[in-house]
């Protein structure tokens, strides 16, 4: 199964209590279809007493089963906590976005979005040069504007 097809069959489950296990999630989501895989990510800190990070992923055999699970389980209660069930999103590249070790202005996504062409740079420099050639006195050119109304002809 391709990665894109797997993503359509996978749901994100957030707001989980620490007492929730893979077995609990399997029992909660099996009414909606065949559960292929369940993932409960471990905490980043290895010495933590937490069993998981408070969220997980449930992968179904069919995309329609995942949609049915989202429609029925989002906002439901599991172990006294309201859970969030939504379509899973693709994992971000660790070198993109905030939190990466690469400066934001050196990342491909940032450059694609905010890069300025040479033509635009030249136009900007030309506009700055034109502005510097204008007279510095802001009142210059306003000598005859002391009279209100239309100009006499």
| Helix content range | 25-40%
Strand content: 15-25%
Mean pLDDT: 83
Using the alpha-carbon principal axes, give the shape: elongated
The value of Rg in angstroms is 30 Å
Structural class call reads alpha+beta
Low-confidence stretches: none
Q: Report the major sheet.
A: 4 strands, antiparallel
Q: If helices are DSSP runs of H or I spanning 4 or more residues, what is the number of helices?
A: 5
Q: State the end-to-end distance.
A: 83 Å
Oligomer, anyone? single chain
| Number of β-strand runs | 6
Record the strand order, biggest sheet. Answer: 2-3-1-6
**Helix and strand sequence:** HEHEEHEEEHH
Structural notes for this entry:
By secondary structure, the chain is α+β, with helices and mostly antiparallel strands. It has helices at residues 3-8, 22-29, 63-73, 108-114, 118-133, and strands at residues 10-14, 35-39, 55-60, 77-78, 81-82, 84-87. A four-stranded antiparallel beta sheet has the order 2-3-1-6. Strand 4 and strand 5 form a beta hairpin. The longest helix is centred in the last third of the chain and has 16 residues, at 118-133. The radius of gyration is 30 Å and the shape is elongated.
Topology, element by element:
Layout: H1 3-8, E1 10-14, H2 22-29, E2 35-39, E3 55-60, H3 63-73, E4 77-78, E5 81-82, E6 84-87, H4 108-114, H5 118-133
Antiparallel strand pairs: 1-3, 1-6, 2-3, 4-5
Give a short summary of the structure:
The chain has 153 residues and is an alpha+beta fold.
What distinguishing features does this structure have?
alpha+beta; four-stranded antiparallel sheet; 5 helices; 31% helix; elongated
């Amino acid at each position: 199964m391709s990665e894109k097809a797997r993503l359509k069959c996978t749901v994100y489950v957030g707001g989980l209590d620490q007492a929730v296990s893979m077995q609990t999630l399997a029992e909660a989501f099996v009414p909606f279809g065949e559960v292929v895989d369940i993932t409960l990510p471990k905490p980043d800190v290895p010495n933590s007493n937490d069993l998981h990070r408070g969220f997980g992923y449930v992968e179904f055999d069919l995309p329609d089963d995942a949609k049915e699970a989202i429609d029925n389980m989002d906002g439901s209660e599991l172990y006294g906590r309201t859970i969030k069930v939504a379509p899973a999103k693709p994992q971000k590249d660790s070198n993109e976005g905030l939190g990466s070790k690469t400066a934001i202005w050196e990342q491909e996504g940032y450059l694609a979005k905010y890069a300025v062409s040479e033509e635009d740079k030249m136009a900007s420099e030309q506009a700055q040069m034109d502005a510097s050639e204008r007279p510095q006195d802001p009142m210059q050119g306003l000598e005859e504007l002391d009279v209100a109304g239309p100009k006499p002809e």
